Amino acid sequence: MARPRIQVARNEVDERYDYHCDALASYLPDAEEFDYPKGERVDLTDADAVVLTGSTAGAYERGERPWIAELERLVRDVIVESIPTLGVCFGHQLVNQALGGRVTHVGTTSKLVRVSLDADPLFEGINSVIPAVHGDRVTRTGEHMRVIASTDHAEIFATRHERAPLWTVQWHPEFTEDMLHHIERDFGWTETEFSFADVNSERIYENFIDIVASR
């Protein structure tokens, strides 16, 4: 069986932080990557699935970053075309905002947290401890988006569209202990009772590929 054609919309605006997009792409080795801030665009006519990366930009910065409005149109298009899509961190926020939700700057959280996960194929085999690294969060879901994961500091920690194959997660599944030196340097880090030995959230990308392939 051929691997699904996955297109990744890279959204990082500062090359110093490109490492999180690189790490995400490493879990999707056959994917094509398109740098949205640099003017590259996903081609839905040649995509079996789409992934929206994180970013140090704010989803609400549409006035100074016109590419954000284009990304919001992409979200609405994948829903119409029923193309499986995964939004990560900024992607989670962008998807919900594109569908009428609200994104708010709340200050940086950078630590391991325990998450309540719904029974969803995206979370198959995923442990409940995940690395949360973000400064914004969704405070109102987009239309037809339902909450499928929550944590103490953010009720809307992952969402899924009620009809379309569209999922979003607030955390970075690609963040592992190997990346902790980057995270600590750039965003700080708060030690908690949890350990990276409890973290396997990178499996989300494998689960997403399986979901796409099954379609």
Could you tell me how far the N terminus lies from the C terminus, measured between alpha carbons in angstroms?
12 Å
Query: What's the gyration radius in Å?
Result: 16 Å
CATH topology: Rossmann fold
Number of domains: 1
Q: DSSP helix count?
A: 5
**How are strands sequenced across the largest beta sheet?**
2-1-3-4-10-9-8-6
Mean pLDDT: 96
Order of helices and strands: EHEEHEHEEEEEEHH
Overall, the morphology is globular
The count of strands amounts to 10
* Uncertain spans: none
CATH class: Alpha Beta
Would you identify the CATH H-level superfamily?
Class I glutamine amidotransferase (GATase) domain
- CATH architecture descriptor name: 3-Layer(aba) Sandwich
Helix content: 10-25%
Largest sheet: 8 strands, mixed
Please report which band the strand proportion falls in: under 5%, 5-15%, 15-25%, 25-35%, 35-45% or over 45%.
25-35%
Task: Determine the structural class based on helices, strands and strand pairing.
Answer: alpha/beta
In short, what is this structure?
By secondary structure, the protein is an alpha/beta fold. The chain has five helices and ten strands, in the order E-H-E-E-H-E-H-E-E-E-E-E-E-H-H. The strands form two sheets. An eight-stranded mixed sheet has the order 2-1-3-4-10-9-8-6, covered by helices on one side.
